[in-house]
Design a protein that fits this description.
Blueprint lengths: L17 H18 L6 E5 L4 H12 L4 E4 L5 H10 L2 E6 L1 H9 L9 E4 L16 E4 H10 L12 E6 L9 E5 H14 L8 E4 L6 H12 L3 E4 L19 H5 L3 E2 L3 H15 L5 H15 L9 H17 L27 E2 L9 E2 L28 E7 L13 E10 L5 E6 L3 E3 L5 E3 H8 L5 E8 L6 E7 L1 H10 L7 H6 L1 H17 L10 E5 L18 H7 L1 H9 L1
Parallel strand pairs: 1-2, 1-3, 2-6, 3-4, 4-5, 8-9, 8-10, 19-20
Antiparallel strand pairs: 6-7, 11-12, 13-14, 14-15, 16-17, 18-19
Helix pairs in contact: 1-2, 1-5, 6-7, 10-11
């Protein structure tokens, strides 16, 4: 695939002004009513992120229809579970998702209608049961345009979304989010991020079934900004699906706003690492980064001091030329995601969960510190006066939290361990369920260890495993094909293919040594460093079922899939 995917803007859609976008939403809402879908029925949106997804959502809201969001990568069991549990009657999806629905048609109890976002349907549609009505997105819009229906607007307490998680710990769980929850997050972010307005351009590429993306796009629309749709695989000029010499989504759209999850940031980092050696020596980049970070944190006249400017001119201007993830002049960007490499543009790091409608904390616009996720988003009744730096499980309350009890109190126990700094900023320091006790009583935080080891150039993905009946931990390592093969060529090691290379003792020894080196840099304890590893040649993708759509590890699935490998690691 060369160049970016189709771009769409909230303000300008297919060359039409904003009124036409609103008209598309109104027409689709009316079309749903004409098809017979009532406000008491639920509609599911089951597709990758695209303009029709967002229009369908807003159209459902206009008719006070609760939508059920489902990741496009979910397997058959999780898909049928989500649709049946919520008694969905209308599914809005793309052509490729229709095949999945056809395959499980006999398991679906309540589905009556399928609306395809693509004009051409798969031939498999003819195989569905006769009780299904299948029509195109465009046809529904046309029906609504010809027979308009008045809006039936919701109250703040009405359920807007039943958002299903990506199923990292088993079957996905549905979280009920009210319109009031969503508006609380939108209003809070607008207060903490200054200057958001109709000049902003948001690059959408994360799954809209993920609360972060859903909240971000609603914020962009709320301020009258533009939204352009892309893909994680076409995001940058060095992305996997971008042909050499062509531009990625970010370069073409020139966004001022975008959101990211850690796995995407890691991809960007790796892409820059692979290219940077041609222009800037890696050791020189590391020195420049550390010095510039010191300047941003107050050394030598502070964040806008001469040393920061010097490193911008000598190094980071060249790095920007490698992989643009923002408008060409980074000073115009509101939020970008390559700040690790010194873009100079502000980065907002937040903390939240589906149950808190994304909004928990968010960094101040001018906060350049690292390792913290900012203060609480503005809402009533919360103080951080306990000193110094209180520690404990993070419990989030407020109007953004999904309904909890009959008394109207909304508290969500996150399972994360955090501490508050003196300035009210939160730092996440651990995860309750990721803490495992070894044979002799030592505790290992899996997430912390994985984050440290993932910085190795040889690691594409990693899962650390601890057995309470052993005194050490092990790791499954998805090897970075390019990095490992480059090392093998330099070492003049012969191999048949990448699978063969991953099985060689010298390769395992080299990667393990790299992990130990990164562990020591991160000051991990001896028991936290994997004693043995297994190199895996195949990447973990949502399609393989080993990671979620948000690229989080599905630990139980991975443990089951590679149970033989783990057994060998502990027995050898």
């Amino acid at each position: 695939m060369g160049g970016p995917l189709k771009n769409f803007t909230w303000e300008i859609m297919s060359g039409f002004p904003m009124e036409k976008t609103f008209e598309a939403v109104s027409n689709f809402a009316s079309g749903l009513a004409q098809l017979g879908h009532t406000r008491n029925e639920r509609a599911a949106i089951f597709a990758d992120t695209r303009e029709e997804w967002y229009i369908a959502m807003q159209a459902c809201f206009r008719r006070n229809i609760t939508i059920v969001t489902i990741y496009a990568s979910l397997g058959e069991e999780a898909l049928s579970h989500s649709l049946n549990q919520t008694e969905v009657t209308t599914v809005i999806c793309g052509q490729k998702e229709i095949k999945k629905l056809v395959d499980i048609s006999g398991q679906l109890d309540t589905v009556k209608r399928i609306i395809c976002m693509d004009d051409e349907f798969s031939s498999n549609v003819s195989l569905v049961k006769e009780s299904w009505t299948v029509t195109s997105f465009a046809a529904v819009e046309k029906l609504g345009r010809e027979k308009p229906v008045d809006a039936d607007l919701p109250l703040s307490t009405d359920i807007a979304v039943i958002m299903y998680t990506s199923g990292s710990t088993g079957l996905p769980k549905g979280v009920m989010i009210t319109h009031g929850n969503a508006l609380a997050t939108v209003s809070a972010v607008r207060k903490i991020v200054p200057g958001l307005g109709d000049k902003d351009v948001y690059l959408a590429y994360l799954p809209l079934a993920h609360i972060l993306e859903l909240a971000a796009e609603n914020i962009a629309a709320a301020v009258g900004g533009k939204i352009g749709y892309g893909s994680p695989l076409t995001l940058t000029d060095t992305s996997n699906k971008i042909k050499k010499g062509t531009k990625g989504d970010a370069s073409v759209l020139a966004p001022t706003l975008m959101a990211a999850v850690p796995a995407i940031l890691d991809r960007v980092r790796d892409g820059v690492r692979k290219k940077v050696g041609w222009i800037v020596p890696k050791d020189y980049l590391k020195l420049a980064y550390n010095r510039r970070l010191s300047a941003m944190n107050g050394s030598w006249f502070g964040a806008r001091g001469p040393e920061r400017i010097l490193w911008d001119i000598l190094v980071f201007k060249k790095v920007r030329a490698i992989d643009l993830l923002f408008c060409p002049d980074a000073s115009n960007a509101c939020i970008v995601i390559t700040g690790k490499y010194g873009t100079g543009a502000p980065i907002g790091q937040g903390y939240g969960l589906t149950e808190t409608c994304a909004g928990g904390t968010f960094t101040e616009y001018d906060d350049t510190s690292i390792g913290r996720v900012g203060p609480l988003l503005a809402r009533r009744g919360y103080l951080t006066t306990d000193k110094p730096m209180p520690r404990g499980e993070i419990i989030i309350g407020g109007p953004n939290v999904t309904p909890a009890d009959e008394k109207g109190m909304r508290w969500f126990y996150t399972g994360d361990i955090g501490q508050f700094h003196g300035d009210g900023c939160l730092e996440i320091i651990d995860r309750k369920k990721d803490i495992v006790k070894l044979q002799h009583g030592e505790y290992v935080s899996l997430g912390k260890v994985e984050a440290a080891l993932a910085t190795s150039v040889y690691v594409d993905n990693i899962m650390v495993h601890c057995d309470p009946f052993h005194s050490y931990c092990v790791a499954l390592v998805v090897a970075s094909e390019s990095a490992v093969q480059d090392w093998a060529v330099k070492q003049e090691i012969s191999f048949n293919d990448f699978t063969d290379l991953c099985q060689k003792d010298e390769t395992v020894k080299e990667v393990l040594a790299s992990l130990v080196k990164e562990a020591k840099k991160a000051r991990l304890e001896k028991v936290e460093i994997p004693a043995k590893i297994k190199l895996l040649p195949e990447p973990w993708t949502p399609e393989s079922g080993l990671v979620t759509a948000a690229l989080k590890l599905k630990r139980e699935v991975i443990k089951k899939t590679f149970s033989d490998e783990l057994t060998i690691l502990y027995s050898s």
